[in-house]
Specification:
Four Helix Bundle (Hemerythrin (Met), subunit A)
């Protein structure tokens, strides 16, 4: 396989990191948004004020798209600098998948938080802590996949 093809494949790993993490963010935000809309509808039906704070639960999974972009940039930079290591492809695929699944499940947890907070108006801080624990998975993946990219880039 020639060097141009290998660089292209490594860059595909970067695209996978971004695409998979963004897919997870879209799924997670979508699920959380549907639950927030349902909670707002119940508030309106009961004559209660609809809590704007539910937007935080909807938006939480969006950060994983940025993490995927950071991984993508690292992979593309390493590939462009001459690193043609297959680990760059794997880092993009598996890192993007892990970050995306984190976003998806963060959205599912955000959906439960929207339902609970919309009903009771209490527990916002506790719900955000739960979302933060799920966010930590994506941050750890970002850090350790970044290390894989760095080592693969050095190994060339």
């Amino acid at each position: 396989m020639d060097a141009t093809m290998m660089v292209s494949l490594c860059k595909m790993g970067g695209a996978a990191a971004f695409g998979l993490s963004a897919t997870g963010s879209a799924l997670g935000s979508g699920v959380a948004a549907m639950a927030a809309i349902g909670a707002w509808k119940r508030c309106y039906a009961q004559g209660k004020m609809a809590p704007f704070m539910l937007v935080a639960f909807m938006a939480a999974p969006l950060s994983q798209t940025f993490y995927g972009m950071i991984v993508m940039n690292g992979i593309v930079a390493a590939a462009t600098a001459g690193a043609h290591h297959p680990a760059l492809i794997a880092a993009g695929l598996f890192g993007g998948l892990a970050i995306g699944v984190s976003a998806w499940y963060q959205g599912k947890a955000g959906a439960a938080a929207s339902d609970a907070f919309g009903e009771t108006g209490q527990g916002f801080g506790n719900y955000m802590i739960a979302l933060g624990v799920i966010e930590t998975v994506a941050i750890l993946v970002l850090v350790f996949i970044g290390k894989v990219v760095q080592v693969a880039g050095a190994a060339g």
